[in-house]
Specification:
Blueprint: H1 4-17, H2 30-41, E1 56-58, E2 65-76, E3 82-92, E4 96-98, H3 102-111, E5 114-115, H4 117-132, E6 136-145, H5 146-150, E7 160-167, H6 172-182
Parallel strand pairs: 2-5
Antiparallel strand pairs: 1-4, 2-3, 3-6, 6-7
Helix pairs in contact: 1-2, 3-4
Amino acid sequence: MVDTARIKAAVVELIQAIGEDPTRSELLATPQKVAEAYAEFFKGVGADAGETLSDTFEAEHNDVVILKDIEFVSMCEHHLLPFTGVAHIAYLPDDRVIGLGRLPKLVEVLAARPQLQENLTAQISDELEAGLGTKGVVVVVEARHHCVVSRGARQPEANTVTMATRGCYSEPAARAEVMGLISK
């Protein structure tokens, strides 16, 4: 749970630090609004992402399961600026599967923390492997980082792609088949 009073005080300090007047009428509500936004952005801090995978079912078939284009918003832990994108998840069940709606929930919990995209990708893969006992996992995350869009490099169309593989999908031939399905 975020400390709203501390966030509000920090925002007032930040407004003053950039040379603005926090008592200016247009800025009066800003500390409260930022505190509310941060409560939402960081609701995954301290949450157990593995709980999203607790409701499994016996697998009748052991073929690959793919869910593409799972939208997310996260905050870059270096700049506290958002990065937004999609995650594509593929897993090869052993004897358990999860309801498809649980995969976006897993992404949501892990993304709602100060994050690096590379770590987010690996964390999704690790949680699926541990939580479902999969034979293999592929996670591809494509995101636009607002620290790259609006400052520094200023590349508004640049996207970052990260991939994590586990189990049998660490093997290039098996991974290539799944990547072909993801890219369709």
